[in-house]
Amino acid sequence: MKKGAGLSLFFGGTAYLGMPHNDAFKKLVFEGIEIYGINHGASRNNNITLDIFSIAENEAARRFGAENSIFLSSGYLAAQLLVQQYYETHLLIYAPDTHPALWIGRPAAPRIKFEEWTEKTINLINGSDQPVMIISNSLNNLIPEIYNFDWLKRINPLKQIVILIDDSHGIGITGNQGEGIYSRLPKLPNIETFVIASMAKALGFDAGLILGNSSGINNLRNSPVYVGSSPPSPGMLYAFVHSEAIYTHELHSLRKNLRLFTDLLESTQKLFFINDFPVFLLLDDEIAVDLLKNGINISSFPYPDPKGVSIHRIVINSIHEKEELEILAKRMNGNG
Structure pTM? Predict the structure, then answer.
């Protein structure tokens, strides 16, 4: 980006794979629009529908390691479909920092470490006779931290549990091939697992996805929330179906950029990050101010509380060029 006489660089956002500016992906979107039109504004149980919806859902299930899947118009709708399906019959247990899209009302989400919350949750479930729905993010993209769910094995196997995990910031970039968390979760007979995701992050198109087993997914298809909803843009789904090689290439480019950036840094003491994840938390406010003053725009705003303290993060994506990463690293090294 140009800014006056100087160069302004952008290291923020959630387009981890650079899809909004990927020419090959845009070409597929336009192809899909030519075939299916811009949108399909009919109810999901309409007797007339488009084949691309079932094609895309079968492909998503295959690609992300689930039995079945549903596409909806947004990640928010995917979250609400599931929460509203269970909140009247189950005790909802929210993990720390659960995204507001998963809320019913304003739940008192715990302000404790994830590991401490898991211990409390195991004890609560094992000592309760209520049906329970556990609701959690797959990771914290602000810190960053990727959560481990092996603790589910410590829940009494006689307890019937539903777990809902939001993988919006993991799907497309975590796992060996960007498959996200679903296939890596413990498979336990007493736990029904659903994973939701906004596809508007790494994967670059407006839709929400639910992954689950066929029984659970088919039950959701009978929900009034699902039946009354409109589907995503069929052209976008066409692009998703035909873009696996594009996503694979961009994931490789992203990981290459992440390695290059960390190799260029003289020290990482004032950063917190995890391998192969594109978010770098700045631990020094002065560095953030210096970057912003010198035309390097990073993610720097209070979240989720708009009145809270700003969180400063550098976000690397797959389309950052070597020269841009060198400029950023040079400034970080204090040689700008």
Answer: 0.94
